[in-house]
Structures are given as structure tokens and as C-alpha cells.
Amino acid sequence: MKRTSLCFTTRNGVELTEGTAPDVEEGQVLIQSVVSAISAGTELLFLRGEVPPAMAVDESIEQLAGAPVRYPLKYGYSMVGRVAAVGAGVDSALEGRMVFAFHPHESCFVTTPDALVKLPADMSPEKAALLPTMETALSLVMDAHPVVGERVVVVGLGMVGLLVTNVLASFSLGRLVGVDPFPRRGKEAVRLGADAVVDGGAERVVEALRSELSKSPGGTEIAGADLVLELSGHPSGFDVAIETVGFGGRVLVGSWYGTKPMSVKSLGGSFHRKHVQVLSSQVSRLSPRWTGRWTKRRRLQTALALLERLEHGPLISHRFPLESASDAYAMLENNPQDALQVLLEYEEP
Questions:
Q1: Please, which contacts does 201-206 make with residues 24 or more away whose CB atoms are closer than 8 Å?
Q2: Contact in structure between 183 and 191 (CB atoms under 8 Å)
């Protein structure tokens, strides 16, 4: 069996490298890849070279942990495949099982059983590839701590923002409003539970948001949002969040801006007088507030249960064979308005 791996070679360079499948040693399993999901926001930062070079590629994924940002770089963390072979000491019942792994884009790889998530028999590989995004969405909502009746705004309706919207829609909120410049994303946000979506490219976006928020119970009695989740990946989204949140409200920043320069105008305005709380959130580690009762495994299994209830079909906008991966990244870079979830598909031997 040959192994084909995707590498980011230089800034905006995508290349496939060929090799042979690794040997399966004691305690290991060989995974034949079926489909992997491109995490557009994070992966494009690496592809563009917009990641601080001193940072580790990832803190928690075994295949990436501790490695510095150095090209050529294997990346990706949403792989669904089939157990093709098991090594000595591994339960043979695993062979043929569909599993999920946090692993870069490549056609086959070896890992340990403990690094795998066994998938429900009736879950499609395409849906399973959304697991890291759903886990991220769950983590963000946990850290945001929404309260019944609150007015909540989600700035940025990429895949993370859309699944955050879906999780938030299960709460009895006063109003749930999304913000994004792309109509396709806005339509999906409404399907997934948003009460309304505001055009993020509009000139008076904050005014439009305040108008939408006033339609919640209580009307204009208390102005602004109680909670804003900033998930746009663009520094300008932080300005929208700060301007939209009301007195004593919370802004949770889930965006990773990389090396994009930050020029935050809103901190010079009413930010201090409004006593705004700015919170950070990132999925690699559990927030200290949750570690007494939650583990990463519990959170991942909860995300899997949420994923089982998701109607995922409309979220899959594009499929590319691994051999055309460069076309997938070019499309995400040049035509982001057309894309929701982009998948890479692998030929089975």
C-alpha cells in the first residue's frame, strides 16, 4: 500500500508526497483514510504563513504536538478512516471499524487504538469529519456560559460559527443573531436555529444588530447584547463585538488572528464605561472552570452525541479528491463566499 501525504511546502504552496505505508508494530493500528475535512480558518493561516514561527503547531494533537512551525508541514486534524490492520496485542475486532482520528491529511497512517474515536455504525464518514468542529463549538459555548433569556450574537458564520449557532439554538435564548457578509452562510445559520442574520459587510452593521436585538423580550429596556461570540477570524470582527455588546456584557473571542495586525478602535470608545468582559476560549485545553467535572474525552463524546442529531448534508459544499487538494485550497482562498465545509476524499485500495 502506498501513502500519499499533503504538505504545505511554502507560503501558499500545496504538494502531495508519495511513500510506502508504515509498518504496523505491536500495539498499533493501520488506518486507511476515507475522508478528511479542511478546517478553512486555521489551515489557511498555516498555508499563508500567518502563524507566529515560535509557536508549536499544536498543543494536544499527538501527530503535531510540540513541533515548531516549519515547512514543509503536514497539517490537518479531521480524519475519518477504516482500520485496515491491527498489530500484536490489539483487539482484532477493531479491524474494518470506521473511526475518527485527529490526524493530518494523508491516505494512510499508523496510530494507537487510544487515539481513535469509534464511530456509530450508522454515522456517515462525511458527518463524522465534522467532529472537531462540533467539539470546538461545544467548547466555545461552554466557556461563553449562555443564560436563558439572553440576547446572543455570533460574529462570523464559518463552519465553527454555524455549529456554535446550532448548539446555542438549543438554549431558550431571548434572541440569537448571526453576523456574516456571505448570504449562503446566513441562510444556513437560520436553518440551524438563528432568529436572524445581519449582513456583516453592511455599512451600519452595529445599528442593524441593535435593531434585531430589540425584538427580543424586553425590547429596548436594556440595550445591546448580553453575549457576543467573535468567531470571524478577522480583527474587524472584534470591533463589531465590542460595539454590539451592552453594559456588563461578555465578549468571547474564539477567533485566532495569527499574525494579522490588530488595530482595535473600539477599546478607545465606550469599552471601559460599559464594563465589558472579554473572554478567551480555545479547544486544545479545558477551561479551568470545567476540569473538576469534565475531561477532554467527555467533551468529545458529548460533541459526538450532538453531531448525531445534526442534519449535516447542506453543510457539505465541496468534495475534492486528494489529488486535487491544491484546487480545494485555491477555492477557499479565492471564493470563500461559495464554501461551507470542504472535504478531501481518498481512494481506497
A1: 205/179, 205/240, 206/240, 206/243, 206/244
A2: no
Strand, helix or coil for residue 331: helix
Confidence band of 154 (pLDDT split at 50, 70, 90): very high
CA 243, distance to chain mean position in Å, is 25
Residue that the C-alpha cell 469509534 belongs to = 118
CA separation for the pair 193, 270 (Å, rounded): 31
Predicted local distance difference test score (pLDDT) of residue 52: 75
- 62: left (phi > 0), else alpha (psi -120 to 50), else beta? alpha
Helix (H) or strand (E) holding 251: strand 245-253
Find out whether the peptide bond into 72 is cis, omega within 30 degrees of 0. yes
37 and 133 Cβ atoms separated by less than 8 Å:
yes
Place of cell 453594559: 247
Query: Are 106 and 325 in contact, with CB atoms under 8 Å apart?
Result: no
> What's residue 269's pLDDT?
75
Q: Where are the beta strands (DSSP E) in 119-265?
A: 151-155, 175-180, 196-199, 225-230, 245-253
Confidence band of 54 (pLDDT split at 50, 70, 90): low
Residues facing 251 on adjacent strands: 228, 278
Work out the pLDDT band at 58, boundaries 50, 70, 90.
low
299/336 Cα distance (integer angstroms): 30
Residues whose CB falls within 8 Å of the CB of residue 325, separated by 6 or more in sequence, listed in order: 6, 14, 16, 105, 344
Cell of 261: 495586525
Say if residue 16's pLDDT is above 60: yes
pTM for this one? 0.93
- Residue 70, all three cell numbers: 516549519
